[in-house]
Amino acid sequence: MKKLIVLLALCAVMLGVAGCGDSRERIYVANWGLFIYEPVLQMFEEEYGIRVVYSTYSTNDELYALITHQGAEFDVVVPSDYTVERMINEGRLAPINWDNVPNAQYIGDQFKNLAFDPTNRYSIPYKWGTFGIVYNTEKVDEPVTSWSILWDERFEGEIFMYNASRDTIGLAQRLLGFSMNSRDINELHQARDLLIQQRPLVRAFLADEIIDNMINGEGSLGTVYNGCARWIIYYNPAHNFVVPAEGSQLWFNSMVIPRTSRNEEHQANAEKFINFMARPDIALLNTLYTRYSTSNIGAFEMLPADWQNCPIYWPNDEIMRRGEVFVDLGDFRAEFHQAWTQVLVAGN
Amino acid sequence: MKRLFVFPYTLWLIVFTVIPIILVAYYALTVTADGQTSFTLANFRWFFEGMTPGEPFFQRLYVRVAMRSVYLALISTAICFVLGYPLAYILASKGFRNKSFLLFMFIAPMWMNFLVRTYAWLTILERNGLFNTLLQRAGLPQIDILYTDTAVLLGMVYNFLPFMVLPIYTSLVRMDKRVIEAAQDLGANPVNVFTRVVFPLSLPGVVSGITMVFMPGAATFIISNLLGGAQYFLLGNLIEQQFLRVGNWHTGSVVAVILMILMVISMAILKLVDRGQAEEEGARV
């Protein structure tokens, strides 16, 4: 392990040295953390002679702040559904020239022309998934079927909730029988109050740290995306993942090209990158490493059978039917943020 | 000639202190609607009224955020002072050997990144972590403090303690030792020497130590997120939320301005204490 660290450090230094005075063209890419097999970036650099400057973010809001503030020059980013919709509505995305992206043919039909970009003018699906409850079967010895188990007092101090407004308020809305895209203020406030009522049972509101906490047996229940759940189960097989009967979100993360001043000269490079990422062998490496479901049918067909048949990796039709895709809330967003702040401040 | 030497620093101050403060104040005092920017106090009203203007002042949403921040910052400052002063005193005392080595050991962890150091506490404090394993081996009851305010305070004290110790240490080391000898010659017992000579003379170090701990303490959001599990929502969290999640620079700036006002008030109070002490000294001489 130590040797590995030294080696990595050396590589980093050498990359740094090699990077100095690099006259190659650059492409600026931002993606979610843990959402790519990073060696594919080097493969792209070698194949196309374009240097990739890669950075990560952890929420859609953070990404939105990244690409809207002045001076940001990202060529390819990966927002999820409702943020794609918002960016399209605000005119922040450049249309993709599909002639330059022949590998788009490998994207599954079920992932094309979804409501947030009805003709796929601006976006190409990358990964998709759902959101549910991961639980430790040694501590929870009953089948988990409903979001309501997160309000069960037997699990006080054993529950990890996801620190993101739409995901967490959304699950409370579904438990109450509302839509996650509701713009009804009363429904929002009922969901908020339900979450405030849950506060004494919650150990912590975290993001990716939930993965480590569950692996280390620090809690009994956590709310995570299905890809995270597969990490947890891989490292600690005592866990199981369930999408509750009330239904959950379905998310689709897509690659898009933000409209910036650099676009004209860089659009072609951005399209090369998008096309490269849609190549089945590359998509396969990405999905095998990240454990998130691919939108690339070419890659899916190359996956081992136990991946293809895994209900967590490839949610079944019933989960799809019960699922809801987030829609951008427009002006109602402000109410949403306030309700979420009230949930968090309730502990002060 | 002197002016020429000062110029780079003046430029630095203007670019990195004055202009940013003006920008933050500008955003705090304006709102943008339909592309039109206008001056207003609405952002301050937003902060102080929260979403529940009818409620008693101290129960309003963001006032509660501010109170929790100040409370945690005050407690961590007090703990740092209680722990830090004796440490600085020991480090500065004359007969102490290996002083430079100890000082080095004390500062060495600061070479590591702040985030890494804070992350390390996760592994130590977890239910199945290092600390609890040791307690278990020793047959003692286990503790569960990760994701509580105790863990947040621990993180703050751990990260900010050097900022309390170093200024106090500096003021103690620089102290003219002959003053202490004079006091002893004149018959002061050790307690009197400390309370009437050493401590008053080290006050400037104490004051800068307090400001250097209180300020980052009131503004932190990483420690409360990592070690507090977002169980507490502090002013730093609110600034982060308004800028990065809500994307409203006006409300984010107003929180930053209010934090700055809090800092200025606390510094003014400390200045008063410091000056009062100095005057007393003057009167005595």
The biggest sheet of chain A, with number of strands, parallel, antiparallel or mixed sense and barrel status, is:
8 strands, mixed
- Ends distance of chain A: 42 Å
Oligomer: heterodimer
Strand element count of chain A? 11
Can you describe what's shown?
Chain A has 14 helices and 11 strands. With 348 residues, chain A is an alpha/beta fold. Chain A folds into 2 domains: 24-128 and 251-308, Periplasmic binding protein-like II (D-Maltodextrin-Binding Protein, domain 2); 129-250 and 315-345, D-Maltodextrin-Binding Protein, domain 2 (3-Layer(aba) Sandwich), CATH 3.40.190. In chain A, α2 links the parallel β1 (25-32) and β2. The radius of gyration of chain A is 21 Å and the shape is globular. Chain A starts with a helix and ends with a helix. Chain B has helices at 2-28, 42-49, 61-92, 99-107, 114-125, 130-137, 149-173, 177-185, 190-219, 222-226, 235-246, 249-284, and strands at 30-33, 36-39. A two-stranded antiparallel ribbon of chain B has the order 1-2. Chains A and B meet through α3, β6, α7 and α14 of A and α3 and α11 of B.
